[in-house]
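Budget justification aside, the reviewers requested a transparent look at the raw inputs and outputs of the sequence design task funded under Objective 1. We therefore reproduce one unedited record. The lines immediately below are the structure tokens for a 506-residue chain.
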């Protein structure tokens, strides 16, 4: 009897505490549209135990039932999904609402608080220092690197001999080669040495971190730290950090030794050539080694955060974009034919024609195809912000502490925003067409925290797709449809299965 009384009193105390502490959040959240919630747990049970594909489907259903803005409660935690350009503008145009949502915290074990995950003064200073690394003169010299790795990619695809092939895996390895050489200045030959420890670790860590993100009981540190996944995560992170550390140390030593460079009193490496990257080949790492914040050189740890951020953000995104682009071309033979004709006009049929930034600028139709691909299949389907204060968003008041996810994926599929939204139509991006709202198409986000790698990504995607077009007539394996899932990156769960017929003219 006593025990029952203690139990009842404890429950009453808990409810009292819960509703006092979260009263304001719960009151405001109740006014936001969204699926019906249970007391205490909100919508947590509706998501628990679901696979990434099932989660994607659930969010798709909710975003169509409660369009523009959907509020999902995970216990007292308010998660707000935004798929309306006017509401998205509130977050994307703000200089203040730049804090990343809680989901990004899981990635800091690997990428630290680099450009993607940092906020406030740290982010601002880093953004300023890293921006020159994406100067067109630097990007210009990456074209050769992309070209070289794409040639290997084409050779890999040729081995399929017209049999069905899942292109997602080879595309990912090619993108890994590209990002390793451009970010760190080293050729890891991921496409040739597929068993490289570093490459395996990059692939495995991404999957592990995503398992944690989607498994609600693994989210709290005190539970996760006891799990076997955490042990494996630590092993992988050691491999990744040891690798990047070694590359940074070696590169710093090389630069110090180099007679073209000297050090100032703060150990900054001073480049005698003011015009950054104009004469020498520089990886992103070199630009960072030359950089300083408030007169102090970036430490090896600072640089590692940024190099690891590029490794994380700079290859899965472009792989997804390239793979879905090849799929769309394969699915639409008339669009493929037009893109192929453009590629042949620019590159010629001679296999020795080099690709340069100038030739890439001429690929107007291919650019429209890539943009349309990123509309229907944005590599980053949602990106998140944490709100530190209540935020007025159109007619809605979003409670302090909410995680807000802006979704280019759902925005692109909304029939009230796009005519015939599911139709793959590159003409939407022809120069004579105007977009109805500046934030209606945001695959690279927008505003202060937009994608710093946008131009890099477009160059890489153009080269890879142009060369694939030049060498192969692509078709989709009969009956194949990609099963899309949104992890942090949009992926096809069942790969991208194509049939590639080598073109005779090449
Ligand atoms: C198709 C390719 C890509 C897409 C669609 C894409 C998309 C995005 C989006 C939507 C964001 C904003 C994320 C957020 O607010 O949380 C972002 C940020 C970022 N992206 Fe990309 N990205 C791509 C390729 C790349 C590449 C190739 C790199 C590097 C080489 C890169 C580096 C970054 C970095 C460092 C940030 C953080 C910027 C900041 O917060 O200041 N991205 N990207």
């Amino acid at each position: 009897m006593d025990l029952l009384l203690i139990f009842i009193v404890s429950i009453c105390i808990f409810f009292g505490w819960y509703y006092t502490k979260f009263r304001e959040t719960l009151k405001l959240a109740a006014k936001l549209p969204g699926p019906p919630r249970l007391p205490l747990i909100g919508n947590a049970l509706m998501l628990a135990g679901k696979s990434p594909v099932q989660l994607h489907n659930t969010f798709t259903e909710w975003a169509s039932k409660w369009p523009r803005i959907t509020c999902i409660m995970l216990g007292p935690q308010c998660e707000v999904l935004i798929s309306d350009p006017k509401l998205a503008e509130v977050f994307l145009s703000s200089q203040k609402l730049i804090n990343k949502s809680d989901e990004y915290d899981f990635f800091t074990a690997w990428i630290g608080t680099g450009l993607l995950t940092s906020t406030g003064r740290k982010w601002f200073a880093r953004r300023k220092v890293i921006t020159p690394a994406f100067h067109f003169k630097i990007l210009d010299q990456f074209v050769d690197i992309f070209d070289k790795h794409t040639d290997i990619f084409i050779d890999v695809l040729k081995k399929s001999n017209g049999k069905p092939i899942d292109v997602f895996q080879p595309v990912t390895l090619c993108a890994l080669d590209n990002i390793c050489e451009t970010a760190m200045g080293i050729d890891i030959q991921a496409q040739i040495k597929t068993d490289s420890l570093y490459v395996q670790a990059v692939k495995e860590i991404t999957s592990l971190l995503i398992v944690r993100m989607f498994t609600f009981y693994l989210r709290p540190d005190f539970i996760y730290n006891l799990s076997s996944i955490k042990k494996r995560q630590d092993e992988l992170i050691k491999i990744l950090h040891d690798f990047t550390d070694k590359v940074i140390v070696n590169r710093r030593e090389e630069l110090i030794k180099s007679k073209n460079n000297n050090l100032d009193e703060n150990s900054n490496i001073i480049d005698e050539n003011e015009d950054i990257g104009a004469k020498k080949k520089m990886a992103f790492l070199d630009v960072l080694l030359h950089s300083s914040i408030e007169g102090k050189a970036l430490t090896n740890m600072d640089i590692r955060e940024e190099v690891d951020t590029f490794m994380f953000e700079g290859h899965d995104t472009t792989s997804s974009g390239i793979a879905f682009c090849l799929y769309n071309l394969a699915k639409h033979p008339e669009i493929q034919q037009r893109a192929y004709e453009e590629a042949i006009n620019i590159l010629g049929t001679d296999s020795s024609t080099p690709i340069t930034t100038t030739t890439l600028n001429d690929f107007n139709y291919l650019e429209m195809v890539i943009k349309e691909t990123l509309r229907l299949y944005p590599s980053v389907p949602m990106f998140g912000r944490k709100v530190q204060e209540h935020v007025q968003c159109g007619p809605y008041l979003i409670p302090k502490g909410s995680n807000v996810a802006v979704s280019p994926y759902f925005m692109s599929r909304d029939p009230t925003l796009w005519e015939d939204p599911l139709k793959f139509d590159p003409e939407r991006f022809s120069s004579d067409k105007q977009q109805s709202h500046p934030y209606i198409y945001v695959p690279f986000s927008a505003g202060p925290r937009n994608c710093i790698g946008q131009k890099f990504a477009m160059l890489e995607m153009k080269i890879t797709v142009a060369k694939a077009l030049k060498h192969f007539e692509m078709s989709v394996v009969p009956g194949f449809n990609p099963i899309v899932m949104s992890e942090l990156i949009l992926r096809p769960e069942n790969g991208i299965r194509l049939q590639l017929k080598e073109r005779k003219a090449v």
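The two ends are 87 Å apart (CA to CA). Residues 124-502 form a domain with the Cytochrome p450 fold (CATH 1.10.630.10). Computational costs for records of this kind are itemized in the attached budget.
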